[in-house]
Specification:
heterodimer; A: 534 residues; mainly alpha; 2 domains; globular; B: alpha/beta; Rossmann fold; 6-stranded mixed beta sheet; 4-stranded antiparallel beta sheet; 9 helices; 26% strand
Chain lengths: 534, 237
């Protein structure tokens, strides 16, 4: 039974990563290859980023003989990342999965249902942990301080650490599910919690230089903190640094025991959690005047309402918008440092504002709102399909919603970029026009990709907005729209046109692309959308 | 009102509709019956333009569903077997959205929504999010949404499933009233007693083939619709 349930969960996980196929349509080798390459690319970027971070720590900490501290930081970071990456997924996939009630109605022990979900979550957590632990080991190797024991304990720890973070996610996910069942606006609650976490993250990032310096000058305090607050990570770090089995056994117990407790508690409370009823007060309806809108406006408002109602969609799809503001804020806060740095490279120093604008475009490539906008309709697709509205309008409304959500962030980013000063008239105009045109192009690009690779049969929203094939493909393509022109310019055209000319060319490219994509969505795309029910 | 000519729809080797021809006139309540998987939902979805078909033609009020789907959809309404509605909207916002899409004027929408919401006793729940609705309440909301834009043709897939007895009775009355006012209704059902009492005409489908079609009297003869249906099923086994 458990085997069948695990197979079911894995099928759902793989299906969510893949394009939805029609019955009988085989998985082609080409599609599998594209998928594989995309995941290698995304994984590679994260591995490289963590490697860079650990390389800077390794040199200093190993030189001070602080091996345990180095591995402690790695293990603690893996735990935090695993927890942060899985707490909302745990809530939606473990406690709020669409098939929970169906499975509970079958002669299956509840324990098997949640354990099978946990295994799927564990695998996701394992990926997060690997993204931290493997670069940490690689950086230690590069620094020439990697011992065999560290490799052995580190690799075993890699598989055990996610169990620990999953146990915490299960408890907090249950609390979140219980609290949200009594809150009318659940999306606001989830969004609030995540924004607080994100705020803390950005405070850390903005002060990363100071934080790294502080760690290196206060190694004893950090070690003591990890020893107490991150006791589990500390035990793993001790065994990795010293090679002794004792701390590793303590680490094993500290990771497995909480999970055993969680399983024991869930075994008694799982049905109660997943079948709870909302205790919110009924809203009284008062008859009043109804607002009349055109079909296009109504579709746009519908898309905005849908987006605003889903914390999963907002957080996963819109996170890049917050990143888009980081560059301009950095430019304002660290203007002198950045200008000094940029001054060393004349081509950047003369057009710093445009460079920040391009950074905004890179951040916007992570805004995947429209890349999930078709899939997220799921079983609701039929509603617009039976209405007397052109399918192209329904698709364009999805793109417009992406633009409407992103535009305030882009405009604020552009204003902040201009506030840093130094932009001429042409650059000043392009600081606004380029990211706006890019936002429009990527908004429509996301709809096109999702239309081509929809997943209408998801079990939880996270599958549609987070792990869909179209989302990964979109991010790579959107990034390419900034990086490829920059590379071509850098390698071939750097001496022919300046950065203003490049930005102008990119803007023209985005405007043309927007027009072509809008034309596609109104024509052939509309036909594809109308046939989604086939 | 609805002309289905030589409709053929295949799913791989399975034929869900095989050369179906039906004509539904204004004023008629037309029942569509058949066993599970016979091709009822496929036919209804094809009529609504949400499922493509391999051959044949479907015309609504003189417009082809293939060539001019918008003109067809303007005069049609659809109530699916499973009312998956936008759960992120409140009931009233959903109804207002539907009215916007059909271009219903302010006064008309206020009047009709009030009329049908009162009739189906959903007025008190209209401010609630659809996610808080029970299956029956969602079905009622789908019915009100269908009636709110005063369609000439209503296509319903198992419309009585999930409705309480009172709502079921009201729906039957409303269906009759829509047809008395010149509209047409094409609906599928497994409840043969309802079909027998309500329908002017009935079509029986089996494995994608139309095995009987005509007025209620023509199809059932001297027996009940249930007996006639079972006999037809046996004849075409």
């Amino acid at each position: 039974m458990l085997k069948s349930l695990i197979a079911l969960r894995l099928q759902a996980l793989i299906a969510s990563l893949n394009r939805q196929r029609k019955p009988g349509q085989p998985q082609t080798a080409r599609r599998a290859l594209v998928m594989g390459l995309l995941f290698v690319y995304v994984g590679g970027v994260y591995l490289w980023l963590f490697y860079q971070m650990f390389a800077s720590l390794a040199e200093a900490l190993f030189a001070q003989g602080q091996d345990a501290l180095y591995y402690g930081i790695a293990a603690a970071l893996a735990l935090i990342l695993g927890f942060a990456g899985s707490v909302f997924a745990t809530e939606s996939q473990l406690y709020e999965a669409n098939d929970n009630e169906l499975l509970l109605s079958m002669p299956i022990r509840p324990r098997l249902i949640f354990v099978s979900s946990m295994i799927s979550l564990y695998l996701t957590n394992l990926v997060f942990t690997a993204l931290v632990m493997l670069p940490a080991l690689a950086a230690a190797y590069t620094a020439g301080s990697l011992k065999t024991t560290a490799v052995c304990y580190g690799l075993v720890g890699l598989f055990i650490l996610p169990i620990g973070s999953l146990a915490i996610s299960c408890v907090l996910g249950a609390l979140l599910a219980l609290i949200s069942s009594h809150v009318r606006n659940k999306a606001a609650l989830s969004l609030g919690i995540t924004l607080v976490l994100l705020g803390a993250y950005f405070v850390l990032i903005f002060n990363s230089e100071n934080v790294l310096n502080w760690i290196l000058t206060h190694t004893e305090q950090v070690a003591s903190f990890i020893n107490t607050a991150g006791w589990r990570a500390h035990q793993l770090a001790l065994s990795m640094a010293g090679g002794s089995a004792g701390p590793f056994m303590l680490f094993l117990i500290s990771a497995l025991a909480p999970m055993a407790v969680v399983v024991f508690i869930l075994d008694r409370s799982f049905i109660g959690i997943v079948t709870r009823h909302k205790g919110t007060k009924k809203i009284q309806y008062r008859k009043g005047e109804m607002r009349v809108s055109s079909p296009r406006t109504a579709l746009l408002v519908k898309e905005l309402r849908h987006f605003g109602s889903s914390a999963t969609w907002m957080l996963n799809g819109g996170l890049g918008l917050i990143f888009a503001l980081v560059g301009p804020v950095m430019l304002l806060r660290r203007a002198e440092f950045i200008q000094n740095f940029a001054g060393a490279v004349p081509v950047i120093g003369e057009h710093l504002n445009l460079c920040v604008s391009m950074y905004i475009c890179v951040a916007l490539s992570m805004v995947t709102i429209s890349a999930a906008s078709v899939s997220i309709e799921g079983k609701n697709w039929w509603q617009t399909a039976v209405m007397p509205v052109h399918a192209g309008d329904a698709l364009l409304a999805k793109g417009m919603m992406h633009v409407a959500v992103g535009l305030p962030f882009v405009l604020v980013g552009a204003v902040l970029t201009l506030c840093a000063g130094g932009a001429g008239l042409a650059d000043g105009i392009l600081v606004f026009v380029m990211p706006v045109s890019y936002l429009c192009a990527t908004a429509l690009l996301g709809v096109c990709f999702n239309l081509r690779f929809p997943n209408m049969t998801w079990l939880s929203e996270a599958q549609a907005v987070k792990t869909g094939f179209s989302v990964a493909l979109y991010m790579a393509a959107a990034l390419g729209l900034v990086v490829v022109p920059l590379l071509i310019w850098g390698l071939l055209l750097g001496n022919v046109i300046n950065l203003t000319g490049l930005a102008l060319c990119m803007t023209v490219l985005y405007v043309i692309l927007s027009a072509l994509l809008a034309h596609y969505l109104s024509g052939r795309g509309a036909k594809v959308y109308s046939r989604l029910g086939d | 009102m609805l002309d289905i000519r030589h409709l053929t729809k295949r799913y791989g080797e399975k034929t869900a509709g095989n050369d179906l021809t039906l004509h539904i006139s204004p004023g008629a309540v037309y029942g569509f019956i058949g066993h599970n998987g016979a091709g009822k939902t496929t036919t209804l979805k094809a009529c609504m333009g949400i499922l493509s078909f391999d051959a044949g033609e479907i015309a609504v009020d003189g417009h082809s569903i293939k060539d001019d789907p918008i003109a067809c959809k303007k005069v049609m309404a659809y109530i699916p077997d499973n009312p998956d509605l936008y759960t992120f909207m409140s009931g009233i916002k959903y109804l207002n959205f539907v009215c916007d899409m059909y271009g219903v004027g302010k006064n008309d929408r206020e009047k009709r929504i009030a009329q049908y919401a009162d009739m189906f006793e959903l007025t008190g729940d209209l401010a609630q999010p659809v996610s808080a609705y029970s299956h029956g309440m969602r079905q009622k909301l789908a019915i009100i949404a269908a009636l709110a834009h005063n369609p000439k043709l209503i296509i319903m897939d198992e419309p009585f499933v999930g409705l309480d007895p009172k709502a079921s009775h009201l729906l039957k009355q409303t269906m009759r009233q829509v047809c008395d006012e010149g509209g047409a209704i094409f609906f599928s059902t497994h409840v043969l007693e309802v079909a027998e009492k309500l329908c002017d005409k009935v079509a029986v489908i089996k494995n994608g083939n139309l095995i009987a079609n005509g007025t209620m009297e023509e199809v059932r003869g001297d027996t009940s619709l249930e007996d006639a249906f079972l006999e037809l099923e046996e004849e075409h086994a």
